[in-house]
Structure formats: structure tokens, C-alpha cells
Fold Dihydrofolate reductase family protein.
Amino acid sequence: MTRVHSFSISLDGFGTGEGQSADAHFGHAGERLHQWMFATRWWQPGGSDGVDNLFVQQHDPGIGAEIMGAGKFGHPGWHEDPQWKGAWGPNPPFHTPVVVLTHHTRPPIEMEGGTTFHFVDASPAEALEAARKAADGKDVRIGGGATVIREFLAARLIDHMHVVVVPIVLGRGKRLWDGLEGLEDDYRIEAVSSPSGVTHLTFARTGR
Amino acid sequence: MTRVHSFSISLDGFGTGEGQSADAHFGHAGERLHQWMFATRWWQPGGSDGVDNLFVQQHDPGIGAEIMGAGKFGHPGWHEDPQWKGAWGPNPPFHTPVVVLTHHTRPPIEMEGGTTFHFVDASPAEALEAARKAADGKDVRIGGGATVIREFLAARLIDHMHVVVVPIVLGRGKRLWDGLEGLEDDYRIEAVSSPSGVTHLTFARTGR
């Protein structure tokens, strides 16, 4: 199974804002797409333990590897910094092999806690093949950003997707839905709104 | 008050598809954006009477006039047909004055049942002024399409908006959200998902 979890977008479909930098990982969106997550018990003691918390907890169990885009691994230009190891500190929250899709490959980086970054310049299908091997029988999470998820959807490589629609209008950035006309034909889609204001969408691939 | 009701969009924000014509009022979207409405008791005996039905019933009460765009009044080129009186038959479902925004003005058309179409070439603010007079103290509905609602939102002329997000990806057509960055600053927004699969969004203007 390939899975997407807790991928947050604005009402107008942007998964990240414009102007990404070392200080603004999501550009002008700031942290606004993820406040719902920070308010859960999964994130902090005393947080909410309703539907948002249930969904956010699905992120890790059963996952054996992640695939992420270059834009998630670092701000534009990270490949010019030989010391760049991602924005997550010495012990990143993945704890599995992570395949980073990039045109600027480098040797793998082994971090604390079980995360190893592998840098590959490959198509979605090729990257998935590599990630599946690394996942050792477990599922592969497609970690984003928007461009990567869109490419994997277009290649019909995603089995389960959880998208969170946050009630803000970003106006600019990277869109999730472009070029995916008719996506609903491949999935059973459910929507559930939360008291926090967000709406959780789940896409379960149907037989094809 | 200016109000928008039951304006249906796809996940990717399109309020109508591409290729509108006399036979395809919503272009390649067909009727897919409005199936949720046809399934309600408001539309047909024996229909659903839950949250979808509650929302759809808000369309008419308290409304004294509607403003609609040229693209809602007819398919492209209608202004070349002097007999064109809209796609709703002799007794249109508005039963109030209707201001049609168009660069091709013509004399008013009085229909059965209280609907009169008035054709004006005006800015949103000017059209609203005309509609308010015609509404005789009641509210004005901004009837769409997407372009017209977007223009009225950009001009900060909408007090209440009900948008229905339908779980399909249209890919092309006319977008609602473009150019509306920061819209959430002006509104209290709620989301409620329905068993039918759609999500109702309500925007209530806060003090400014």
C-alpha cells in the first residue's frame, strides 16, 4: 500500500505557500495549514482527542519508508549546502528509510532514530520500487509536498490518501489538484468535518 | 444583506466546467455539481431531509432580488438571440427582479411568476445598488456564476455565503477562489460534511 496522511491544503488547494525559505518552510502560508495538528493530543499533552487526533495518529503505524520531494527536504538551494540534513534536527520524525526525489543526488545520510535519507533522481514508479524494497514489506508513505503527491496521483500509484482542507484562502503556492480531472473515478471518497474547522477527506482506491 | 446560497464547486474549486453551451449549461461538469441538491426533499418528494435539505431551503426566503452573471443567464452568444429569455422556461424559479450583468444590455423582460430580468452593464457596487432598490428592503442574492461571486467577494460586498464542495475533480472551468487571498480574515467560516458526500461551508461576515 502507498499512503498519504494528514496532507493539509487551503480551500483553494495549495499545499504550501509562495516564497519558501530556510525561515519559512511553507512560504507565506506559515504554520496556518498545520494549526489543527498542533492542537491535538498527538502533538501536545492536553490537546484535543477527537476526530483530528484519530486521523493524525495514522501517520506512522505500518509505514516502512517515505518518499518526499526535494521541496520538503529543504528550501530552494539546499543542494548547494553539503552539510544540509533536512530541517528536522539530528533525530528526524520518520524513523525509516526516506527516499528524497531530487535532480541533485548525494550519498545517503544516516540520522539518529532510524531515519536514513536516500537521494534519487527517478520517476514516481522507480522511486516507489526503491521505497518498497526499503520498506521491507510495510507500507510506503508519500510525504509530499503537493507536487510529489500530484505526480503520484497522476501515475495512479496512491492507494489511500488523507487530505485535510483548512478554511483559509492562500491565493498562491503549490496546488495539489491540478491536472487530476476525474480523480474521483478511482476512489471512494469520504468527507468529515471537525469542530476545529478543518475537513478531513479520505480517498480509498477502488478496484481497477 | 447580500447572500450566496448553494453555490456548488468541485474539490479543485470550479463552479462550472469548460465548454458551456445550450445543451451543457455547466459544460463538461454536467449535473455532477448539483446531484446533492436533486436528492433532497426540497427538490423531489421522498428526497433526503437532513443537512443538505436544510441548507438548500435557505435559497429563497427573505430574498427580494438576485444578481447573476451573463454566463448564468445563457450560454455564450445568447445576446445574439433576441428571443432568448433564459434557460428556465416561462416561469423562472426566482420570482423577484433579477439583475443580469452583461455588456450587451437590452430592455427588461417580464416573465410569469414575478421574475423580471433587468440587463445592466455595471460594476458590482453599482449593480448591488440597483438590486437593493429593486429588493424593496429584502436581501439580495448573488446567484453566480463563479466569476460574479468572485468579483463580489473581491469587492467585499458579500455578507453571507454558502458554498458546497462536491468530491469531484473537474480540472478545468471557472474557479471561485482565484485572487481572494486572505478571504478568511473577513469571515467566520464553518464546515459541515453531509452523508451525501458534500461539505457545506458557510461564511458569515464579521465586523470590519
